[in-house]
Model the fold of this input.
Amino acid sequence: MTSPVAGAGSAPHPPDYAPVPRSALGPALNDQGYYVGRVERNLYWVTDGVYQSAFLTTPDGVVLFDAPPSIGHNLRRAVDEIAAANGVSNTVTHLVYSHHHADHAAASSLFDGDVARIGHEETRRLLLRDNDPARPAPEVTFADRYRLEVGGERAELAWHGPNHSPDNIYIHFPGHDTLMFIDVVNAGWVPIYNLNLSEDVIGYMGAPATALSYPWTHFICGHLGRLATRDDVAVHQQYIADIEASSREALASVDPVPFYVAAGENAWAGVKGHLDAVTERAAAPIIAKYTGVLAAADIEVFTTTTTFAIMQSLRLDRGPSGPVHP
Ligand SMILES: [Zn+2]
Done:
């Protein structure tokens, strides 16, 4: 059967986006579609070019941090490859969840048996709620801080409030000069829609400063193909700060009255006209400034949806939401 739609069944043609800056890209993947590299000493990271995971090899076994399903069985291959090369155990004894989201955790069920699952107490609550067999709930939980010590190695887990998700934690490796903190900063790339699909805008905006308050040189951010640096976090902070400033300017300078007058009795049409105009005015200079600096900055919907979320948070969380009626 032939389709009446021209080109149906063939790959869609992507729009003509700006070239991805070479600095946003990481090492080449192997034939199986992954790269595993040393972060420092016995701490390793794994990527498929889009998602990232990490693991510690110790004399007492391997500690795995996140299990993205897109990397999937390549996590086992990466651990086996490194364990064999270094003559250490490849048994995964501990699995730490950064947060409950399936895209970073749904390969965790591939590691069963005696593995100890560790996560924030809210991660446990949300995983019990979601009842996904691919993501068994952690049985070892904590509220604020947890020190994980395995085979003489240490990871400090900490919860500093909601940000991307209610349960997203900071994982500090003091003996490896490394911080792992997922889904807030994308190394070399803009956040995707709505501040990386984040639930708490104010928490998301403040999280990079918390990340920078730790001592570290290497940053495992969860996306995309390379590790991040302190400079990457600073560029991300500037992008968000620019959106905040631009949103304030647009909120103050776009007059809502004509939109409501034009909308007549359809109040929601007035809201749409006004907020779309504010969003467009606020986002345009950000898209122009960061195209060529952060990869995918010219995919406008990412910056416009992030701008919309920040602009709404400025109104609703920080206030004022609008003038007080006389
Ligand atoms: Zn997430």
